[in-house]
Specification:
Length: 267
Amino acid sequence: MEPFIYLYAFIPEEEVESKPLANMEGFDRQNNIYTVTIDGIKAVVCRLHSEEYSEEVIQEKIENDMEWLQQKAYYHHQTLMKLYEEYTLIPLKFCTIYQNEESLRQKVEEKLDDMREILTQLKEKEEWNLKIYCNEESLKKIVSQDNPTIAAKKEEINQLPPGRQFFERKKIDQLIMDELDLEKDRICEVAHEQLNQYAEDAVIKKNWSKEMTGRKENMAWNSVFLLKKDQVEPCLEELEQAEKELETKGFTLEITGPWPAYHFASF
C-alpha cells in the first residue's frame, strides 16, 4: 500500500538549493524527512505507514493517548524550529497528512500564487508572542484609591441622606470591579500598541485559563506580532521599559519568540 505523506512546511526552492536540507528523522522516527519540489516551492515531508497512521488511528491516539500526543506534538514543533533556523517557511499544523505525493501536489498547485506571496512577505521576519498577566488584587487597590469615577461616586454618596448612603455604598464594590476591568483593558491595549508600532502585522488571541498557564494570576492579554528582524531589538527595549512601569500596578509582561509564523501563514 502506498505510504501517506506527512507535511511539515513549505520553503522556497532557492533557499534549499543554497543550503541543502539537513538529515532529520521524520514523524515516525523511522523515515527521514525529504522535500517534494512543486513549481519553485519545496514541501518538507516524510513518509508514514498508511495503516499505522490512518485518520481513525490518529484520532484515537489524540483522544486517548496523551503521552503519544505530547511526544509527537513536541517532535513536530522541534522539527519546525530547526527548519525555521535555516529557511523562510510556511509552517503546517500538527498532523497534516496527505494520501500520497500526487494529492499534495494537486493541493499546492491550487494555491501557488498565494503561497509565493506569503513566502515573500515572511522573508526576514519573525513571530513574537506577548502575554500579559494581572494580579487583580494589586490593581484593585490602585483603582479603589486613584480612579476618578470611584472618587466621584464616593463623593456623591457622601452628599446623600444617611439611609440612602448605606445602600449606595453596597454598589461601590461592583463599580470598583467594573472600573478594574476597564483599566486592565486600557493598560493592555496601550502595551499592545507600543509593540504594534514596530510590527508588520498583529493578531489578538483568546486569553488562556489558569489551568493552561499554571499561573496564579489571570491572563489579561494575549497577542502575536510579525516583526522584521531589524525591528526586534527596539521592540524588546520598548517592552522592557513598559514592564518596569506596569509591574507596580500588578502586571507581568511575558514575550516569547522568535517563532515560525504560525499566525501569519495559512495554507
